């Protein structure tokens, strides 16, 4: 039987995949949170307050997914 060694680039690819999935889950969470706020028929000021809370989470989740995809691409190019 042949054993294959795991390279640093394989680890980079799988770590990037995990980070991207975390970012995607964060984006889905933001979508759910905003849709719940829309269904609650909040006042204009309450809706703005809720959206102000969601925007940083949305940007953080987007950042995670982009960084994860970058890690995957770098791992594929260097492998």
Account of the 3D structure:
The protein is mainly α and 79 residues long. The chain has a domain of 55 residues. 85% of the residues lie in helices and 0% in strands. It is built from two helices and no strands. The protein is rod-shaped, with a radius of gyration of 18 Å.
The unreliable regions are none
Alpha-beta classification: mainly alpha
What's the shape? rod-shaped
* DSSP helical segment count: 2
Strand content: under 5%
Helix and strand succession?
A: HH
**Rg over CA atoms:** 18 Å
Total beta strands: 0
Largest sheet: none
**Mean pLDDT across all residues, rounded?**
93
Q: How many angstroms does the end-to-end distance come to? A: 23 Å
The helix content is: over 70%
Compile the SSE list and pairings:
Elements: H1 8-39, H2 44-78
Helix pairs in contact: 1-2
Please sum up the structure shown.
The chain is 85% helix and 0% strand. It has 79 residues and is mainly alpha-helical. The chain has a domain at 20-74.
